[in-house]
Specification:
By secondary structure, this protein is an alpha/beta fold. It is about 35% helix and about 15% strand. It has 18 helices and 21 strands. The longest helix is centred in the last third of the chain and has 27 residues.
Length: about 550
């Protein structure tokens, strides 16, 4: 099929061209027309054969209903079973314009147009060219966005050409679409009414007329396989360029860090105005961070541009989901097939603890082998007591003789005194924990900048320390008592009696098990790897 392209600048001056486009629709043909939102692929909504051509040209699933466009309010009554009372006030305020309203359909609307539903979506576009063509056609006009199904919607005639050339009768070029994302869709056919698709008209604006309007959960989330879609169009992967889209939510600083770390020669950053020179990889801007209209009007343009430039992956800055930004966010979620990375989130941190001799270090090494960054509580404790202030406080608490001639700490003597009573242990912790905590924090930041997958903190006193607050997950390692005795004797060269004293000074095994989410049993001859793998998988999820 040869696709004719005509340019309409001025509805009054180009009335012959308007007539021509109207005739194509009236006679069962299909034509792409500009609207204030995106280009639509138009056909007579009441002619099943014409509507079928739309589904074919787009490759659209047949259960995804089309919006029926009318030239004015009078076009609505024949399409619906009954005009909802609330509709008049909405139309008065928002029509013509980017608001689509779903109501129960009349028998005039063919099943193919409504995707088999008993409802119909109606909209009256404000774009003068679209409006004049519908009027000229003299029939209600079904018009989905004029893109190949799944691709970003077209906001220029060139985009339509790229997808539809050779598949449709006519393309009407009316320049770039002003809003850039599709109309807001609400349904009055459910109780309470729902917002099915966000657009230029925001939920806040609508709630003035529909105080009980709720935002459908599909706006923000992926529908599970069994959930019934109120708006079938929201269930498909959608608005996607060939390139993989990754949506990055978080601060500019962390976004740059993330992109520079994971980007390569085939990646592009899609960022806000003024940011493009901040990335190591090429970047394109899609609008001002705090101006939803500027983001919306360039969104699909930029997504198509990513493919034109030959990139295979786009890292896109996430807009604030307010005002028109909500619509941009909603489209981007689908472009990215819900692949969103929270760049401000640090690596998962696992706190590993357990009674002495249970074999924490062995388990910690297994995590290291699996890509985790190890923070060793013993190492940090040793570093903490090199601090002059900490040393002075320890000397005050446990006696000046705990400081060696060379100014270092006599660790054995300090331990003897500090672990003599629970009060003394508490005093030791009060002096050392703040410094150990600060050091831990610095280590986590360091890990964040490494290639590690996560962080494992190996700390015997974890559960009594503020470090517990930095952990996303707590794990304890336990082993039978006689085995722990044997390990301690071997490791530290002490007697069985001394080992037992240490064990008895500590909290019982049950304390660790009760205060952590996972327990790894590390008895001799037992394989803890499966349990550790399970914990790693949960941490990285
Ligand atoms: O801005 C727009 O609305 C553009 C321009 C061309 O007017 N059109 C548009 O159409 O975006 P389309 O087909 O790409 O999107 C129609 C959306 C889909 O999400 C569809 O599921 C929903 O509206 N929809 C249509 N009829 C419906 C119905 N009866 N009930 C629920 N949702 C419906
Ligand atoms: Mg569409």
């Amino acid at each position: 099929m040869k696709t004719e392209i005509i340019r309409i600048e001025d509805v009054a001056k180009d009335s012959a061209l308007i007539e021509k486009a109207g005739a194509v629709l009236r006679e069962g043909g299909i034509a792409a027309v500009p609207t204030e939102t995106v280009y639509g692929l138009a056909a007579n909504a009441l002619d099943p054969d014409a509507v079928r051509k739309i589904f074919e040209a787009k490759g659209r699933p047949s259960d995804n209903p089309l919006i029926v466009h009318v030239a004015d309010l009078n076009g609505v009554a024949p399409l619906v079973k009954e005009v909802d009372k609330r509709f008049y006030a909405l139309a008065e305020k928002f029509w013509p314009g980017p608001l689509t309203v779903v109501m129960k359909k009349s028998s005039l609307v063919p099943d193919i147009t409504s995707g088999g539903l008993d409802t119909v979506a109606v909209r009256c576009p404000s774009h003068p060219v679209a409006n004049a063509i519908i009027r000229a056609a003299g029939v209600p006009v079904a018009a989905p966005s004029a893109n190949t199904s799944g691709k970003p919607s077209p906001t220029t005639a060139q985009h339509v050409c790229d997808d539809m050339s050779g598949k449709i009768d006519l393309i009407v070029d009316g320049g770039k679409c002003e809003i850039g994302v599709e109309s807001t869709v609400i349904t009055l056919a459910t109780e309470p009414p729902r917002l099915l698709r966000p657009g230029k008209i925001t939920p806040e604006e609508l709630q003035e007329f529909l105080p009980d309007l709720i935002v459908d959960s599909a706006v923000f989330s992926e529908l599970s396989g069994t959930e019934k879609a109120q708006s079938p169009g929201m269930k498909y992967k959608h608005y996607s360029p060939e390139a993989e889209v990754v949506l990055l939510r978080g601060s500019l600083e962390n976004t740059i860090r993330y992109v520079n770390k994971y980007g390569n020669a085939e990646s592009v950053a899609v960022c806000f105005t003024g940011e493009k020179n901040m990335f190591d990889v090429p970047a394109v801007e899609y609008g001002l961070e705090d101006d939803g209209l500027s983001l919306a009007s360039n969104l699909f343009y930029v997504l198509r541009k990513v493919d034109d430039l030959g990139f295979s992956r786009a890292f896109v800055r996430c807009p604030k989901p307010v005002g028109l930004g909500l619509a941009v966010y909603n489209r981007l979620l689908r472009s990215a097939a819900f692949h969103v990375v929270d760049v401000d989130k640090r690596l998962p941190v696992i706190g590993l603890t357990g009674p002495t001799g249970a074999g924490k270090s062995t388990v910690a090494q297994y995590f290291v082998k699996n890509g985790f960054y190890l923070i060793d509580g013993d190492v940090l404790a040793r570093e903490a007591v090199r601090n002059k202030e900490v040393l002075a406080n320890l000397a005050k608490e446990f006696g000046a003789d705990i400081i060696n001639e060379d100014g270092s700490l006599n660790r054995r003597l300090t331990a003897d005194r500090a672990f003599a009573t629970p009060e003394k242990t508490k005093a030791l912790n009060a002096i050392t924990h703040p410094t150990i905590t600060a050091l831990t924090y610095i280590e986590i930041t360091r890990a964040d900048r490494s290639d590690s997958k996560g962080v494992i903190i190996d700390a015997a006193a974890l559960l009594q320390s503020p470090i517990i607050n930095m952990c996303d997950m707590l794990v304890c390692v336990v082993a039978p008592r006689d085995e722990r005795v044997r390990r301690i004797v071997e490791r530290d060269g002490i007697t069985v009696e001394q080992a037992l004293t240490r064990i008895n000074a500590q909290k019982p095994e049950s304390y660790y098990i009760e205060n952590t989410q996972y327990t790894i049993s590390n008895a001799a001859g037992e394989d803890f790897h499966a349990k550790a793998d399970e914990i790693i998988a949960a941490a990285l999820k």
